[in-house]
Amino acid sequence: MIDTFKKNICSKAVNFYNQNGYLVIENFFSTKTTSKIKIAIDEIKGDKSIELYYDKSGLIRRMENFTYKHKTFKFVDEKIKNLLLKLTSFEQSLFKDKVNFKPPKGEGFFAHYDGIFQFRTPEGKIKNGWYEYTSDFTNCLICLDNFTIENGTLEISKSHNEDFKTLLKNTKNNGTPNIKDELILQLKFNPIVANSGSVVIFKHTCPHRSSPNYSKNDRGSLYLTYNKLKNGNFYKKYFLDKKKSKNPFKALQGEQI
């Protein structure tokens, strides 16, 4: 069972996070703030400098590279950084951002780690995913709608604390971070049932997945990923490198990741 905690980070919450690699904080953002985030998403969609990804039906499924282009996202970024400082005792730097749009019948994604994959540069060199920048990342998912079993909520398993080389052996090693089927059968995934405005914090080494949205309503989420500030600021470099990458896998169940 997943415990939920309020805004004040107590020792129980810190211990739970350290032991499991994830934490759910219920109702961290107010309904008013969550509404402002949705408005900001609609306002910035037309900015040509952000990255948009579409599914086969032509629907927007993902938005990236937007935090520093709107005051609402800057506000959320600061709130999350303060939260992570209390939880981890480290100052954080934003590594990457994305909005996941999950409309009715929208696809989920296969069980995977974040950043555990290899890719080839235009020059033909093999690179080690996110570990080309640093080796410790924290994801913060903000629920923009209620997360339920029916709408394909995030399912998460306890963090794996091995190094990149070991974790890569757990994946299908096909350019994606997808975890091998035989390992998935050994894992216990906990579905996150949470209200809009709740925050899910989890280490990049936590296996996670989701099912399709079988409900009649949208299920959106704002994902902010951080690394320790002392290790550097890689936000601009990450998105510049991503544009150069020839990796075709961009994250939809069945066709992409």
How would you describe this structure to a colleague?
- With 257 residues, the chain is α+β, with helices and mostly antiparallel strands.
- The chain has six helices and 14 strands.
- The chain has helices spanning 11-20, 31-44, 71-88, 164-169, 181-184, 235-244; strands spanning 4-5, 22-25, 51-54, 60-64, 92-100, 109-112, 119-120, 126-127, 137-143, 154-156, 190-191, 199-203, 208-210, 221-228.
- Strands 1-2-12-9-14-5-4-3 form an eight-stranded mixed sheet.
List key phrases describing it:
single chain; 257 residues; alpha+beta; Jelly Rolls; eight-stranded mixed β-sheet; four-stranded antiparallel β-sheet; globular; disordered N terminus
Give a quick rundown of the structure:
Helix content is 24%, strand content 23%.
Q: How confident is the prediction overall: mean pLDDT?
A: 91
Instruction: Give the domain tally.
Output: 1
CATH superfamily membership, which one?
A: q2cbj1_9rhob like domain
How do the strands line up in the largest sheet?
Answer: 1-2-12-9-14-5-4-3
Q: How many E-type strands?
A: 14
Structural class of the secondary structure composition?
A: alpha+beta
CATH architecture: Sandwich
Q: Which of globular, elongated, flat, extended, rod-shaped describes the shape?
A: globular
Strand content: 15-25%
What pattern of helices and strands is seen along the backbone?
A: EHEHEEHEEEEEEHHEEEEH
How does the SSE layout of this entry go?
Layout: E1 4-5, H1 11-20, E2 22-25, H2 31-44, E3 51-54, E4 60-64, H3 71-88, E5 92-100, E6 109-112, E7 119-120, E8 126-127, E9 137-143, E10 154-156, H4 164-169, H5 181-184, E11 190-191, E12 199-203, E13 208-210, E14 221-228, H6 235-244
Parallel strand pairs: 1-2
Antiparallel strand pairs: 2-12, 3-4, 4-5, 5-14, 6-13, 7-8, 9-12, 9-14, 10-11, 10-13
